[in-house]
Amino acid sequence: MTHATFHDLKDTSVFITGGGSGIGAALTEGFLRQGAKVGFVGRSDASDFVDQMEAQTGNRPHFVQCDITDIPALKAAMAECADLNGPITTLVNNAANDQRHSTEEVTEEFWDWAQAINLKAYFFACQAVMAGMKAAGGGAIINFTSISYMMGNTGYPIYTTANSGINGMTRSLAREFGSDKIRVNALAPGWVLTQKQLDMWAEPDALAAHLERQCLKEHLAPDDIVASTLFLASQASRMITGQALVVDGGVAVTG
């Protein structure tokens, strides 16, 4: 897939949560190909991926193994990447977990775990970059949410609750930090067929039914999300903030 080039992203400091697999890996590659300095975290070792990215793009990302529910560890990883690459001026909160569950089976422990991954870590990552972005004269935060809450999907009510919370947080932070030229937007993908989705939930009947709901009759791949993220990070979107950009092939038509 051919992506647009955003020249202003070259040599900028980018931090991505969950940047070693799925959509996150595509995002890491996308920013590297723009010439950005990319740091990312993930729970699983991504050393091979780092080597692969350097070989393919000529630009080596910096990886810190980290569980984002451990807020001190997340902040330490972000500080390490900022020390190496310069103050983070693009934050992509991508890491999430959409484990299926029913309302009846939810315990307090599961609630806390799900919110820690899908909402709490987003907030504290935003908090951690604010001072550096302000000092740098501005920045961009892209918070990944999902169309699942817009559609009122069943099967993961704690996940959709967090998705909705991400949008509320995005709007409030956009207004709070807009005077510092910090833009905060949400990006809501549709059903993107990552390897995890294909392995766990992408049954033929479900895929066919979802495709029928899309205006564009083609399944989304991780690369389809990259260009929109680059746009929101770049000065091409310099007057866009507090918004939720939906990239779903036309399932949840908004406006």
TrEMBL record:
<feature type="domain" description="Ketoreductase">
    <location>
        <begin position="12"/>
        <end position="204"/>
    </location>
</feature>
<keyword id="KW-0560">Oxidoreductase</keyword>
<protein>
    <submittedName>
        <fullName>SDR family oxidoreductase</fullName>
    </submittedName>
</protein>
<dbReference type="GO" id="GO:0016491">
    <property type="term" value="F:oxidoreductase activity"/>
</dbReference>
<dbReference type="Pfam" id="PF13561">
    <property type="entry name" value="adh_short_C2"/>
</dbReference>
<dbReference type="InterPro" id="IPR036291">
    <property type="entry name" value="NAD(P)-bd_dom_sf"/>
</dbReference>
<dbReference type="InterPro" id="IPR057326">
    <property type="entry name" value="KR_dom"/>
</dbReference>
<comment type="similarity">
    <text>Belongs to the short-chain dehydrogenases/reductases (SDR) family.</text>
</comment>
<dbReference type="InterPro" id="IPR002347">
    <property type="entry name" value="SDR_fam"/>
</dbReference>
